[in-house]
Model the fold of this input.
Amino acid sequence: MPLPAVSFEVFPPKTVDAAFRLWDTAQALAPLAPRFFSVTYGAGGTTRDLTHDAAHVLHRTSKLPVSAHLTCVGASVAETMEQAEKFHAAGVTDIVALRGDPQDGTDRFIPHPDGFKNSVELIEALALLDKFTIRVGAYPDCHPDAASQHANIQYLKRKFDAGADEAITQFFFEPESFLRFRDQCAAAGITRPIVPGILPITNWASARKFALCCGTKIPAWMEDAYAKAERDNRTELLSTALCAEMCSTLMDEGVDALHFYTLNRPDLTRNVCRALGVTPQSSLANVA
Ligand code: FAD
Done:
């Protein structure tokens, strides 16, 4: 079976310690020759400059394509587009264009008075620039703000119609979630690539909490499996096996690209990649 193309999401560091962790992550994962690294944009638009700097350094040191995330939160249209231009000047060729999550303390997205009202407006504006490959979020287990799965998929279609090139999904715990979603998207006339977002679980409590916030369904068997694994101190083994198995099922079903949420902890992602046959091609040449 052909090897999958891989890509890796990291977040920008806020401390020196975190900066070293990001560097370790890049060093561990760049040799796997990913399609790209993506760098998140803090919830509430809080890491604008850090995202820029991390994307710039990652691109300069790895020579790999870097995708910067950009959200509509907390900024006017002019400020958001200025940020996109800064990304471009820093060598960023790809953007993950998102509505974004609200600032802490609120549970509903409220647009900036002079800002983009939703992700579709942002995607349209970026597409007009004609400078970036545009990726967008997709939600196999349905986004909590969507009225129904039908509305969820129709909205994704609008994002593609607005100029998106590819979608990356929110993480999910069972391959059927993705495969069903892929079929539903195809039936709705979506023809562009939808890449599964894969979360290798380093910490079950936080993965569970995050899943509850973003609408990812938690199968009952996982609760039991992680309770036992934590008791027996073998969480990492369980996560590696489950994640590799899920990726392998997806590949059996024709999935040819996987996007890993690394959380700047490269070991588990690297082990899963190794289990799938994705092994180092080169070493990171330049040090920041
Ligand atoms: P959208 O797809 O625009 O909206 C989500 C759903 O809400 C849609 O499915 C639709 O059904 C409904 N909806 C929204 N607006 C409308 C409307 N006007 N009319 C009708 N229905 C509507 N968050 C960050 O803050 N920073 C990041 O770096 C970040 N990276 C991410 C990367 C990926 C791959 C993914 C999947 C998510 C990421 N997120 C990030 C989280 C994301 O910001 C949240 O999921 C957010 O709630 C939705 O953003 P979106 O652009 O995907 O939403």
About this structure: The chain has a mean pLDDT of 95. The chain has one domain: 5-276.
